[in-house]
Amino acid sequence: MEQVRRRLPLLLAAVLLVGAGVALTLVRWPGRPATPPAVRQQPVVAEYLLQGEGRQAVVRLEVAASPAARERGLMGRTRVPPGAGMVFLFPADTTAGFWMKDTLVPLSIAFVAADGRVVAVREMTPCSADPCQVYGPGGSYRYAVELAAGAFPAAGVREGSRVVPRAPERLPLVT
Predict the structure, then answer these.
(1) Closest CA relative to residue 110, chosen from 65, 68, 59, 172
(2) Angle in degrees, CA 93, 97, 103, rounded to 5
(3) Residue 28 has what pLDDT?
(4) Which of 10, 67, 97, 136 has its CA 20 to 30 A from that of 121?
(5) How confident is the prediction along the chain (175 residues), in pLDDT tens digits per residue?
(6) Helix, strand counts (H, E) of the chain
(7) Are 147 and 163 in contact (CB under 8 A)?
(8) What count of other Cβ atoms lies within 10 Å of the Cβ of residue 147?
(9) Closest CA to 88 of 105, 67, 104
(10) So what's the pLDDT on residue 39?
């Protein structure tokens, strides 16, 4: 009875986690404490509207809202599907440039002001060894959007066009 009483809090916690849709698997090897498995979080995806030269298109973008996510970006990806990419959100206006170190595919980047106006569009090529070219915005911006190479020109997006989130209230907090 005492063993049941001591294990009851663990049993209740497991029931609550499973009831909440969390799969919990603990492995206990002899001589080692049980440890939970690593959890890989799904990326937050947001839709953005590209408005350029009388045309509109919707793209689905992975959101990079933390310093670590912004630093990792699209590194290591072997392809960026049409209509998909990444948005890099910053907590304040910035003039920081982007580089393509360890990025395997050519990309198109739009630097966008807080009001959704495109400050600059650049075509970027992969780089595997330092020094890598830095692609600058030529002005301050609040977020940057990366798509497959040529995607912005193909959509008619250039300096002065607009790139805006369709549901800005759903974007994560920026750190």
Answers:
(1) 59
(2) 125
(3) 41
(4) 67
(5) 455 445 444 444 444 444 444 443 344 444 545 545 555 568 899 999 999 988 999 999 999 999 999 999 999 999 999 999 999 999 999 999 999 999 999 999 999 999 999 999 999 999 999 999 999 999 999 999 999 999 999 999 999 999 999 999 999 999 9
(6) 3, 9
(7) no
(8) 29
(9) 67
(10) 52
* Residues shown for the chain: 175
Beta-carbon count within 10 A of 65 CB: 19
State both tokens at 123: 């075509």
Nearest to 39 by CA among 28, 25, 27: 25
Pairing between strand 84-94 and 55-64?
A: parallel
Residue showing tokens 């595997």:
128
Cβ neighbours of residue 127 closer than 8 Å, sequence gap 6 or more? 99, 100, 101, 102, 103, 133
Torsion sign, CA atoms 128, 131, 137, 141: positive
| Token reading at 61 | 């973008």
Name the residue with tokens 């393509």: 100
> Against a cut of 0.90, is the pTM above it?
no
Taking the C-alpha atoms of residue 132 and residue 166, their distance in angstroms, rounded to an integer, is: 34
